[in-house]
UniProtKB/TrEMBL annotation:
The gene is anmK. This is Anhydro-N-acetylmuramic acid kinase. Belongs to the anhydro-N-acetylmuramic acid kinase family. Its EC number is 2.7.1.170. It catalyses: 1,6-anhydro-N-acetyl-beta-muramate + ATP + H2O = N-acetyl-D-muramate 6-phosphate + ADP + H(+).
């Protein structure tokens, strides 16, 4: 078993998650501590500007406008996060075999064979003195895959530990929502639609805070059924998996004419409904849905999702002993080890790549 640290900065732009696991790339030997380094408001604003500048990029190694500054920020923030993690947990860097570094996605257009995660893996390895596996999506996209979602191979390892029978879906609700369908050896995955991104952006404009804390605003509002029905008619929602999204693919869908409460309620319902729409497009309707990511902490979203997916069981991953907030960081630790061993990260049923495919670039300190 190798000790691996995983790092994740998701499309919600809230901060850097850190997690340590022990794994051989197939089985999970032990879960270690987790950590978090929040982005400051000015850092988050820089990343939002980088997302805007990335929209015009046509080459994945280009860093026009503010993107070069943003890449330095991402690298520094991840180095800070790991150094703090070492200190907090009295952990020697010599005890860590590898770091899995996702970086910050600022552009994802797999139909153009283009995906961009900013963050300098080589600089991070030099700073930490630990080998770093990075650039984990590019190989899949170059081979014709969607490059996302990447986490399903880790979801599968977690579900195997539960020893459950029957089809299970793991729902990850970050900025974008995605699902992993697991039934024996069958592994299917896709993005389902907006996760927290539309809601977070709306709340930022209205309140100055990019979150509907505990779903309180949505709980007080009324869903605009006509708006929701129209939004769900977009072709993406009826397309079969695998499929993936850029964070801003639904940014033109606005609720700015609504009150804060009604807008939050409508966008929350949109996330839940779009997740539920994938169910009939799977080989079987899952009997169990396990929800992880930031959305699992939103009681209003969880309630609506439970109503949409009934009579199936909807459970938070944290209620099963999973680290709901750090699960993607754990996944990138797991995938870093798989990359070191040449094991596949993506599969035909998860990204549409023609055959199981490994990926990642190794940077040595």
């Amino acid at each position: 078993m190798l000790k691996a640290i995983g790092l994740m900065s998701g499309t919600s732009l809230d901060g850097v998650d850190v997690a340590l696991i022990e794994t051989d790339g197939e089985h999970i030997g032990a879960f270690g501590p987790t950590g978090y380094r929040a982005y400051a408001d000015n850092e988050r604003e820089l990343l939002r500007r980088a997302l805007a500048d990335a929209a015009s990029v046509t080459q994945r190694d280009a860093r026009p406008g503010i993107l070069a500054d943003a890449e330095r920020l991402v690298t520094r923030a991840h180095a800070d996060a790991v150094e703090n993690f070492f200190q907090t947990n009295n952990l020697s860097r010599d005890a860590v075999d590898v770091v899995g570094f996702h970086g910050q996605t600022v552009l994802h257009r797999p139909e153009q064979k283009l995906t961009m995660q900013i963050g300098d893996g080589r600089a991070l390895a030099a700073s930490l003195g630990v080998p770093v596996v990075f650039d984990l999506r590019a190989a899949d996209v170059a081979a014709g895959g969607q490059g996302a979602p990447l986490v399903p191979v880790y979801h599968s390892a977690l579900v195997r530990m539960l020893a459950r029978s029957g089809p299970t879906a793991v729902v990850n609700i970050g900025g974008v929502a995605n699902i992993t369908y697991i039934d024996g050896e069958t592994l299917i995955a896709c993005d389902t639609g907006p996760g927290n991104a539309l809601l977070d952006d709306f709340m930022l404009r209205r309140t100055g805070k990019a979150v509907d804390r505990d779903g309180e605003a949505a709980a007080k509002g009324r869903t605009d059924g006509e708006w929701l029905a129209k939004a769900l008619r977009r072709p993406f929602f009826t397309a079969p998996p695998p499929k993936s999204l850029d964070r801003n693919d639904f940014a033109t869908l606005t609720v700015d004419s609504m009150s804060t409460e009604d807008g939050a309620a409508t966008l929350t319902a949109f996330t839940a409904a779009s997740i539920a729409m994938i169910a009939p497009r799977l080989p079987q309707i899952p009997e169990n849905w396990i929800v992880v990511g930031g959305g699992a902490s939103n009681p209003t979203l969880m309630r609506i999702l439970g109503e949409r997916l009934a009579p199936a069981t909807v459970t938070r991953g944290s209620d099963l002993g999973w680290s709901g907030d750090a699960i993607e960081a754990q996944a990138f630790a797991y995938m870093a080890v798989r990359s070191l061993k040449g094991l596949p990260l993506t599969f035909p049923g998860t990204t549409g790549v023609a055959a199981p495919h490994t990926g990642g670039v190794l940077a040595k300190p």
